[in-house]
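To whoever is on call:

I kicked off a structure prediction for a single chain this morning and the downstream step that reads the tokens threw a length-mismatch warning. I double-checked the sequence; it's 124 residues and nothing unusual in it as far as I can see. Pasting both halves so you can look.
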Amino acid sequence: MCKLGAGKKLWIIPDCELPEEGEGILKGHESVIVVNDSDADATIKVTLYFTDKECYTDITWHVAANRVHCFRMNNLEDMCGFSIPLNTQYAMKLDSSCNIVVQYGRLDNRQTNLAYYTTLGYNE
């Protein structure tokens, strides 16, 4: 029997903003963590939305069945060669071939008191 997996196929992360790396041991970054607990590999189409330009749609992620993967927004390989502009508001949509669970995190150390937060995306 095929296990469908927890989560949903469509996720929206509305508050993205890739910070500069900053100073110190911990470097500023954004990440999206995807858990695929289904019996099928997930193919995830990523759409980026910007306030002042057309959306970008040429990013595809893959997460194997019963695996977790962390994608970093400042990693060109994870972003299929697309360079996220620093300090720019954008949003992200993930459209998966199977149910997944998505968590977003941002580490911002542009000031002495660094800020880190994480949240689940909106799912439909």
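Update from on-call: the warning came from a stale cache, not from the record. Cleared it. Sanity check on the structure: The chain is about 0% helix and 55% strand.
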